[in-house]
Specification:
Number of domains: 2
Distance between the termini: 47 Å
CATH architecture of the largest domain: 3-Layer(aba) Sandwich
CATH class of the largest domain: Alpha Beta
Number of helices: 15
Number of strands: 12
Mean pLDDT: 96
Low-confidence stretches: none
Order of helices and strands: HHHEHEHEHEHEEEHHHHEHEHEEHEH
Bound molecules: pyridoxal-5'-phosphate
CATH topology of the largest domain: Aspartate Aminotransferase, domain 2
CATH superfamily of the largest domain: Type I PLP-dependent aspartate aminotransferase-like (Major domain)
Shape: globular
Structural class: alpha/beta
Largest sheet: 7 strands, mixed
């Protein structure tokens, strides 16, 4: 079956009530048939519901659908996108290890990698995901993963998947790709050799800014790399599970370990209600990502003719430095655009005049949003630091929603 059909049907079998929509199992725990049954579940001899921190039937349907859309073999939902990024890293590293991350990355993933993980004795090194020139030199025997975004937030850098995975495969290192901005309808990183995909489901997946959530997807070939001595935690007994060896027991060792060890102990589980909202989002994701992208392209065309605009960043704009990579890998460029508008003051004034766009530090809502990074998210940086971060003081970021494009253009025109 094709994606749109899978997104609406996969993984749900109606019970005797015949509910058309997946029921929300708001239940902390699930009853065992008897003590033998309970023992079998706890010993992983049999699959079944135990406790919602480990798994939940509503959440499980979402996990199966997002895994299928990304061409993975299994998925794990988490309470947020950051929890998904953290678990994918924590599943692979130990004290003294290092990770290689893209320079252009979501701010939270950068602070996690460079600040918080440093406290656990893990070091982060940087590479350019567009060119991957220095990537191979950065790899050593303590390197456990390469993290990058398909389209980076907020810089909109497009990754060169094939170049990155070729180097990673040569050294048998796990690649982790954050596919939040592209969605599986624009690109499926696993088809280009990526081992693990993560999402902030709070963005296009839920689609209307109503819930926080995340997910991790495992490719069919991650296991091959996890068998090497780079990843001992998958090949040696886990004492917390009576000596379980993940690679021996499972075909999906990455997800099973993330669930059985990390979710069990760190506990960033998604609410079944939020998982259900993500299921609703998946039902229309294929229509929405197309509509966001079409609206964004119309706005890019308007902005590129306006004399007040200095520079526009959008991967499908011919003059954009990501254009070649975007055309090679992406079906849709999504709804995020950034552009430069003169000085700090001019940018601030422009934002205050907008009526339909809301000033919000979020993206991928059904409603259009605007941010001025220099006065908000990047406020603490000096003029020079702003330039180094690729955030000039007059930079504006738009997240184009699903309103009528003509209304959005009129709003931008009057504010300019
Ligand atoms: C928002 C975002 C995250 C973090 O997700 P939350 O759901 O807010 O925790 C991670 N990666 C990218 C690319 C994002 O845009």
């Amino acid at each position: 079956m094709k994606d749109a059909t899978l997104a609406l049907h996969l993984g749900y079998e109606k019970d005797k009530e015949k509910a058309m929509q997946v029921p929300i199992f708001m239940s902390t725990a699930f009853e065992y048939e008897n003590t033998d049954h309970a023992a079998r579940l706890f010993n992983l001899e049999e699959k079944g519901n135990i406790y919602t921190r480990i798994a939940n039937p509503t959440t499980r349907v979402f996990e199966k659908r997002i895994a299928a859309l990304e061409r993975g073999i299994d998925a794990l939902a988490t309470s947020s996108g950051m929890a998904a990024v953290f678990y994918s890293i924590a599943n692979l590293v130990g004290r003294g290890d290092n990770i290689i991350i893209a320079e252009k990355l979501y701010g939270g993933s950068i602070t996690l990698s460079t600040q918080t993980l440093k406290q656990f004795g893990i070091k982060a090194k940087f590479f350019d995901s567009k060119r991957a020139e220095n990537l191979e030199e950065l790899i050593d025997e303590k390197t456990k993963l390469i993290l990058f975004e398909s389209i980076s937030n907020p810089a909109l850098a497009v990754a060169d998947f094939e170049k990155i995975t070729e180097i990673a495969n040569k050294h048998k290192i796990i690649t982790v790709c954050d596919n939040t901005l592209a969605t599986p309808y624009s690109v499926k990183p696993i088809e280009f050799g990526v081992d693990i995909v993560v999402h902030s489901a709070s963005k296009y997946i839920v689609g209307n800014g109503s819930a926080i959530g995340g997910c991790i997807i495992e490719s069919p070939f991650a296991k091959e790399k996890l068998k090497t001595k780079r990843y001992p935690q998958f090949n040696t007994p886990d004492e917390s599970y009576h000596g379980l060896i993940y690679n021996e027991k499972f075909d999906n060792p990455f997800i099973e370990r993330a669930r059985l060890a990390l979710l069990r102990d760190y506990g960033a589980v998604i609410s079944p209600f939020n998982a259900w909202l993500l299921l609703l989002g998946l039902e229309t994701l294929h229509l929405r990502i197309k509509a966001h992208s079409q609206n964004a392209m119309k706005i890019v065309e308007f902005l590129s003719k306006h004399q007040k605009i200095k520079k526009i960043n959008y991967p499908f704009l011919k003059s954009d430095e990501n254009y070649e990579l975007a055309k090679k890998y992406l079906k849709y460029a999504g709804g995020i655009i950034s552009f430069e508008l003169g000085s700090y003051e001019e940018a601030k004034e422009f934002v205050s005049k907008l009526k339909i766009f809301s000033l919000v530090t979020n993206i991928a809502d059904s409603k259009s949003l605007v941010t001025h990074p220099a006065s908000t998210t990047h406020q603490q940086l000096s003029k020079e630091e702003l330039l180094n971060a690729g955030v000039p003081e007059g930079l504006i970021r738009l997240s184009i929603g699903l309103e009528d494009a003509d209304d959005l253009i009129n709003d931008l025109r009057q504010a300019l």
